[in-house]
Amino acid sequence: MKYLAIAEELRGRIARGELPPGARVPSTRRLAADHGVAMATAAKALALLSQEGVVQAEPRSGTVVAGRDRRGGHQGLTRDRLVRTAIAIADAEGLGALSMRGVAARLGVAAMAPYRYVRSRDELVLLMADAAYGERGYPAKPSGDWRARLTLGGRTLWSLFKRHPWLAQLGPITRPLPLRNLAVHGEWALSALSELGVDATTLCNLHVLFFSHVQGMAVHLEREQSALASSGLTEEDWIDQQSAGVAAMAAGHPTFTRMLADLAEEGYDLVLDDLFELGMRALLDGLALRYGR
């Protein structure tokens, strides 16, 4: 993504001392002209650096390089700041781009400084996940029937996965993460499902099934993000390039061929939000029929 490349170049200039603390950073208009990008792309790069504390807005001066203490010198480094910076990297570039050295570089501290707060990258990822799951909660006094509460739980988790696409990639459903804030979402769903009057084994299985639907749809969020970054092709561009191959694949399969023809005539967009809602409604309809609720 072009805004990430612009931000990385500015970080390098700051790290090399070409832009010392207090120096004015190139304006959005200058960055857009120098890199041949839209103003919005250049603004996004500066916004990312501001979020990381690398630059700051000064009245009548524009955007300047932040002082080292604000950028995360040892005295200003905390576990919370470490986690939030790591989340910002994973949100923008994917979990595969996350490294302890990279986080330290974003914070402007020595490469070993983060190890004062976490033992390893794995521990950092768990802290990131716990913080991400803790960004949304539920009403203190639940209202509505089991279906309404489960719908709210599913949509809440979906919103978190959309905000942090890497979150759905952390592990298989067979190895749940022991996270305090994830338990909040689990308790909300379990309390709703318990109204179906099932035994403990069935209750656990239904919760796994419910969570699997949300997570299973969400794994495609970062995969699409990664595909876009590596290929430079949007989903629509990629599908256009594959049209001949798909038509050849469907040859000899009449239902497949008829569906493609109808979709071409009517128009079709694969929208993950819509598929998530469709799947959740089907799941809840099935539970209502199966358990007479």
Characterization of this structure:
This protein has 293 residues and is mostly helical. The protein has 3 domains: 2-56, Arc Repressor Mutant, subunit A (Orthogonal Bundle), CATH 1.10.10.10; 74-133, Arc Repressor Mutant, subunit A (Orthogonal Bundle), CATH 1.10.10.60; 146-290, Tetracycline Repressor, domain 2, CATH 1.10.357.10. The chain has helices at residues 2-15, 28-35, 39-52, 79-93, 100-107, 121-133, 146-163, 180-193, 200-231, 235-250, 254-266, 272-290; strands spanning 55-58, 62-65. The protein has a two-stranded antiparallel ribbon. α2 (28-35) crosses α3, α4 crosses α6 (121-133) and α6 (121-133) crosses α8. It is globular. The model has no long low-confidence stretch (mean pLDDT 88).
What is the fold named in CATH at topology level of the largest domain?
Answer: Tetracycline Repressor, domain 2
Which strand order do you get reading across the main beta sheet?
A: 1-2
**What is the residue-averaged pLDDT?**
88
For the biggest sheet, the summary is: 2 strands, antiparallel
The count of DSSP E runs of length 2 or more, i.e. the number of strands, is 2
Which H/E pattern describes the elements? HHHEEHHHHHHHHH
Strand portion:
under 5%
Shape field: globular
Q: Span from first to last CA?
A: 48 Å
Alpha-beta classification: mainly alpha
The Rg value, from CA coordinates, equals: 23 Å
Keywords: DNA-binding, Transcription, Transcription regulation
Domain HTH tetR-type: 76-136
InterPro entries: Bact_HTH_transcr_reg, Homeodomain-like_sf, HTH_TetR, Repressor_TetR_C, Tet_transcr_reg_TetR-rel_C_sf, Tscrpt_reg_HTH_GntR, WH-like_DNA-bd_sf, WH_DNA-bd_sf
DNA-binding region: 99-118
